[in-house]
Amino acid sequence: ATSASQIQLVTISGQVTYDGLAVNMADVGFACEYEGETLQFWARTNGSGFYSLEVISGCPGGIGFSAGGNGLPGLIGNQGYTYSAGVPDFTPPSNNTVINFAVPALVPVNVRVVDSSSNPMSGIRVRQAELDPEYYPSTSIDFGNGITGTARWRSFSSGMCTTSSSGECEVYAPANSSTQVYAEKNLGGLNITTETVTATTGALTGFL
Q1: I need a surface site. Which of 14, 151, 173, 202 has the fewest CB within 10 A?
Q2: In whole angstroms, what is the distance from residue 195 CA to residue 127 CA?
Q3: How far apart are CA 202 and CA 38, in angstroms?
Q4: How far apart, in whole angstroms, are the C-alpha atoms of residue 12 and residue 33?
Q5: Rounded CA gap, 40 and 61, in Å?
């Protein structure tokens, strides 16, 4: 076993921001495998979005953050969501390191549902993936210092809408992310159509 004197602790610190604004009360965590055991380290961002973690150098694992509830600026009152980002394969170096988790703003994805004759369909429920994290709206992020990871968004409210008479409605996803959108109708039996769309800055129309 490694003695305590051989363990080198280093500091991982940085800021969590959403669309350039500080994220308060975000949970930042690092977990790694050390001598057959899983060790976990975590910290919570302050009012300026800053965090600091003391971890074991050379311990391979993953680091990331998660924010929900009222934690994201501009989304006060939007309950039932989680915005997270992380680096699944991260080994702390021998020196202190800065990782700034800067995640993009949410943008509207305009979805239009039509029938086989291209006529708009109203009253159709449109939703994003709810259960499998693999299909949550996600985008690749550069966190600096040569470190890249993935940002994911999950919502129980803004991730769902019902089409109007024009066959359109809006869901939200991180800018420049990919998201799977489901259109559901019940005409004597459930019929689900799935399409992957990309959210860009501004609205994008996905035809299902």
Answers
A1: 202
A2: 11
A3: 42
A4: 17
A5: 10
Q: Residue 203 has what DSSP assignment?
A: -
Give the β-pairing of 177-186 and 190-199.
Answer: antiparallel
pTM of the predicted model as reported, rounded to 2 decimal places:
0.75
- pLDDT tens, position by position, 175-204: 777 777 777 765 555 455 555 555 543 333
CA–CA separation, 47 vs 201, rounded Å? 28
Which residue, among 19, 156, 171, has the nearest Cα to 101 in the 3D structure? Answer: 19
Look up tokens 């150098």; give the residue: 57
Tokens coding 61: 């694992």
Contact assessment for residue 43 and residue 54, using Cβ atoms and an 8 Å cutoff: no
Q: What are phi and psi of 203, to 5 degrees?
A: -90, 145
